[in-house]
Specification:
Elements (H helix, E strand, L loop, with lengths): L5 H19 L1 H11 L4 H4 L1 H21 L4 H21 L3 H28 L6 H30 L1 H22 L8 H4 L7 H21 L2 H8 L7 H25 L1 H22 L3 H17 L1 H11 L5 H27 L7 H38 L1
Length: about 400
Amino acid sequence: MASRSAPALTALAVGTFALGMTEFVITGLLPPIAADLSVSIPTAGLLISGYALSVVIGGPLLTASVARRARKPVLIGLLGFFVAGNLISAVAPGFAAMMTGRVVAALCHGAFIGIATITAADLVRPERRSSAIAAMLSGITVANVAGVPLGTLLGQQLGWRATFWAMALLGVVAALATAAFVPATGSGDQPSARWGAFRSPVVWLALGMTALAFGAVYAPFTYVAPLMTDVAGFSPGALPWLLVLFGLGLVLGNVIGARAADRHLMPTIIVASTAMLIILVVFAWAAHSPAPAAVTLFALGVAAYATVPGLTTRVIAAADGDNLVVSAAAVSAFNLGNAAGAYLGGRAIAAGWGYDSTPLVGAAMELGALGLAAALLLAGRMSTRTSDKSRSAEVF
């Protein structure tokens, strides 16, 4: 990857770090937030679903509204929503106000990552796109390695509201980094804002596969705090290092997945998804003992993020080129999966099936993702045969 692109990709990664920390830090703080806001843990889990659904709805719409504008000022402006939302969360007197802060912060998420994805891809040669996207998204993996555990520790020591104050400050830093290092080149144009790509069934198959594959992780991970303490037997003080362990798995998976997807896109997605299905089934058993639970949590992180660069690239490829709205829709698909995983996991808990049932909920979602992957492969083969027949007809 060209060295001249490194500062810009790093600046974009600072932004995704901020977004990743805000979206995921609640998983480590769910019990104290639930207690302070006087709601149950499954209800507090809706703060993750609410954030994700706001990304799902707001991402493509907001992206379409700014697609013709210069990307750099748009990225900086979007981070303003992030700062405002975290400030609201930091002072929220109750659950409704807290949800409002989450929704406001999420408004920037889909559009920022969607525009940052296209920006990152434009900084490198076409054959390096998956790696550039992975570098930009590395902020999210680093957020899980460092940001989420540190945010959890900060919340445990100074109260969960201190974590949201810190994230608002982080948003300011991300905006300054974007202003300093992202090139003032590249802007959306009319083709990038078109919605015509959504007429393709392949785009919808790719989006559905993305939602199910990534949502499978968040059925158990949303409730990782009670899963690792109440079921596995860890003390609450162990949560920060357990989240570091999961985050390290994400980093490793992101690197492996990016390199493999650059060479073999769909095989990488299918292999990583199959591995995640197996790990989720094992997790339901392993969660009952500390050492197996910790090892499986790490393995889940590796498999989960091994899919991300490939899933993102596959959605963009399905749209036949750089399409800002489709790029934002890919982010929405990830977050729709997050929302569905958090919700379905919460329903399983509320039904009395226990925290250890959430990995099996994820496994069912992952099985659905593999079904859509098979449909995508079939659609690709049919498209190839159609193209071959067309070329033959032209010859004769």
